[in-house]
Amino acid sequence: MNTHMTPLPPAPTIRRPAPTWEQFEQRLILEVVRNQPEPRAHNHEELLANRRQAAELRARISKYQRSLQRPVDQSHVKALSEAICRLKVLVWRMFPFNDLPVEIVANIFRYAVWSTTSSPDGILLRFRLTWVCRRWRHIAVHDPTLWNTIWFKDVKVGYQRSELYFERAGAATLDLRIEDDDKSRLDPDQPMTGKDMNRILDILMTKSDQIRMLVVVVELWPPILVLLDRLHRSSRSLRQLERIEIHRTGRPYRWDGPGYRLSDYKHALSLCDGYTQGINHICLNGLHLDWDKSCLTNLTSLDLRRMPPDLGPSLERFRYMLESSPNLRKLSLDGAGPIATTSLAMRSYPPVFLPRLESLILGDVLVAYAIYYARIIHAPNVREMTLLNLGGEDHTPLFNVLTGKFPELLMLTLHRMNIRMSAENGRTMVQWFLSIPKIKFMRVAATMADMLGLFNVDGRLHIRHDIPLNLTPEYRAAILNNGSFIILCPELEAIEVEHVNIGSVVNFVHGRKNLGVPLRKLFIQHNWLESMEDPEKEVIKELNDEPDFINVSVPMKVTPVEESIWKQVRGG
Question: How large is the average pLDDT for residues 54-75?
């Protein structure tokens, strides 16, 4: 056997944002592995040769490491990284993997399968594990936990793959996803029907007592109605169901019963006939329930989207859902929520205390409704809040209500917020920012430019309501001579921007630096960056005076800064 390894490729020349040594090393190793021949069993002489080569590499690495204690030569760094990569790959290829106990091999397989970044990759990788050899196939096929996450999206092969996974999952708990979209359909113009949904549920309900998670994404009402009916009829056997998401992507939002062939449904259905005690995570998108007969309690996540305003839960029922969920961590109302009632009736209730709520999302409602909703809850430990697409010409009254409610806030997203600038509104916004002093990350999209300019204001001028809005020079001087500059959000370390005035972004970055609290990162949303004119891109580039200050962010994906903040919050 030829024991010489394929030469390493040239070092990457593309500049990447802030690569760590581990990331750099991983890229090199992956390049080496991709260029290696298929592995095979080594005979005794080949193993001895490999061990000699490994000893030589270890000696070479030790030599390079000693040299790095002196002024560093770039060639030594490259040689060291190359030697380390060669050694690691060589040791891996010599390792007697098939001598490991079955339990350890199975655990390695699980790590490999669940480390993929996309569902299609995970699906293919599970099959590939069964193609290597008889031993690997036997271990993989007989490990139910490798197969118990099933994506029913293979209608073009008659759901054969999903049924195979379903069979191999054995008695393991099941995490299921049913999805209907243009790419997966037999006919792109023919969305899933109620009959199609029945066919899938005929399979699933044979193991209804094993279902732990169920996510359904369809376009039309008929499959939704079939689903709700089958869940209703199978409710007593759904003992392990913890998480349910039902997304109906099409219009209309409302369905009162008649108008479809499934005319047996004369009114909204309950969820699982009220037997929902085990469900702690619920998301309903584009459909409504019989709320009074759906016992939604002990929730950790409640996500309601796209519902007609008169088909949400009553205020009393909504409050009951919250009060019965003391461990609620995420609450999202996006174009949905409790039915608005008179201000007099609302004032008779105290806010619902949600001590564990971490994430709050409110969007696609009128600002008056947002104010109504904000007064329903008391959640002082919220760490992340998103406000998006609120109706109305001026959203400042909402921030007036929110001031002081979220002192532990760390991450804030503002999307399409309208602030009608005036002296009074400016003070309201400054006081809002003063009330969230721990904020570390902010995302601003399609929001008025003047809002960023408020961050350069001295908080002393607005910290109290009795300070006149139009100060005389003498009064202003008296305030500024008393104490130090009060910086708004002094711990803010990163911001992501999209469709915001470029000049306001530049002034914001320079302003924070002049105040002695410079940003560590500026994220530019990828799609916006691509649509910029060349002059705008040049202005952005001029801000990159620190290494890796400007980063490109991906839509719908959290930034590394947000990931780091959540790890700190949860002690990870």
Answer: 67
The amino acid sitting at 377 is: I
Residue 39 confidence (pLDDT): 67
CB 151 within 8 A of CB 119: yes
Cα 300 from Cα 292, distance rounded (Å): 20
Contact 222, 260 (CB under 8 A): yes
Pairing of β 494-498 and β 411-415: unpaired
Domain boundaries, the chain: 21-95
**For residues 31 and 13, what is the distance between their CA atoms, to the nearest angstrom?**
14
Upper half-sphere CA count for residue 66 (Cβ side, 13 Å): 5
Per-residue pLDDT tens over the stretch 164-220: 999 999 999 999 999 998 787 878 888 898 899 999 999 999 999 999 999 999 998
The pLDDT, as a whole number, for residue 28 is 74
Tell me how far the alpha carbon of residue 180 is from its chain's centroid. Answer: 22
| pLDDT more than 90, % of the chain | 44
* Cα 209 from Cα 303, distance rounded (Å): 24
Q: Are 6 and 36 in contact (CB under 8 A)?
A: yes
Cβ pair 306, 334 in contact under 8 A: yes
Which residues on neighbouring strands pair with residue 213, listed in sequence order? 175, 243
Residue 452 host element (H or E): helix 450-453
- Tokens 């008056």 appear where? 368
CA dist., res. 143 & res. 545, Å (int):
53
Residues belonging to the chain: 572
Q: State the alpha helices, DSSP H only, in 210-267.
A: 221-233
Does the pLDDT of residue 367 top 70, yes or no?
yes
Q: How far is CA 400 from CA 126, 139, 445, 510, in A?
A: 53, 60, 21, 28
- At 284-300, the pLDDT tens digits run 999 888 898 888 999 99
Longest Cα–Cα distance in the chain = 92
pTM of the full predicted structure?
Answer: 0.82
Cα separations in angstroms, 174 against 212, 306, 391: 5, 28, 41
**Banded pLDDT at 13 (limits 50, 70, 90):** very low
Cα torsion 56, 59, 60, 61 to 10°: value is 120
- SS3 assignment for 175-201: EEEEECCCCCCCCCCCCCCHHHHHHHH
DSSP state of 526: H
Alpha helices in 470-533 (DSSP H): 473-480, 502-514, 526-531
Asked whether the predicted pLDDT for residue 473 surpasses 90, the reply is no
Q: Write down the mean pLDDT value for the chain.
A: 84
Nearest to 424 by CA among 390, 470, 393, 458: 470
Sign, CA torsion 321/326/327/329:
positive
Asked if residue 211 lies in contact with residue 238, where contact means CB atoms within 8 angstroms, the answer is yes
